[in-house]
């Protein structure tokens, strides 16, 4: 069964970029709902014992859209919480070098990431990921996920569903993305994911 992981920081820790009110609503209501619905389907389908990553794969195999959406959204939200930190610092080491190689500079990456998320139509997610050809920025619709991608390893993830920012920014998704990138993006996680991809080590998994 899927569990709702606790936040890796206090609800108010990301203020003023993300308010305590938003974190309570987003984690305690939205993420919790995805977990509850997914667990109901897991019981109904007899899939107890599978990890969240395995549930996403099984849902795709069965073409079970409801299970996929709720398992994938559970995974995405947990990775999103870990993609943020109250102790911001910029990227370092090999990841910083890869950013320069792929985008020319961190500022260019920022521009591309913000544009990708701000211009994404309707609900979805903005990703920084690593592939065989280097770093890429992309977005996925609705519950689209890189949880089991063979081609791309997610490094950072920002939620661009309205519930992620509307309390704090109303319709101004672009400002939310700018502040998110500048103040709470967790580059330490991104560095760990990048190193794991290069070494063939274990990348981030949904908390058991």
UniProtKB/TrEMBL annotation:
Highest taxon, organism lineage: Bacteria
A Gene Ontology molecular function term of the record: superoxide dismutase activity
EC numbers on record: 1.15.1.1
Catalytic activity: 2 superoxide + 2 H(+) = H2O2 + O2
UniProt binding sites for Mn(2+): 26, 77, 159, 163
Classification via Pfam families: Sod_Fe_C (PF02777), Sod_Fe_N (PF00081)
Xref: InterPro entries: Mn/Fe_SOD (IPR001189), Mn/Fe_SOD_BS (IPR019833), Mn/Fe_SOD_C (IPR019832), Mn/Fe_SOD_N (IPR019831), Mn/Fe_SOD_N_sf (IPR036324), SOD_C_sf (IPR036314)
SUPFAM superfamilies: Fe,Mn superoxide dismutase (SOD), C-terminal domain, Fe,Mn superoxide dismutase (SOD), N-terminal domain
Keywords: Metal-binding, Oxidoreductase
Domain Manganese/iron superoxide dismutase C-terminal, first and last residues per copy: 91-192
Residue stretches making up the Manganese/iron superoxide dismutase N-terminal domain: 3-84
Function: Destroys radicals which are normally produced within the cells and which are toxic to biological systems.
Family the UniProt entry places it in: Belongs to the iron/manganese superoxide dismutase family.
Identification of the protein by name: Superoxide dismutase
Lineage: Bacteria, Pseudomonadati, Pseudomonadota, Alphaproteobacteria, Caulobacterales
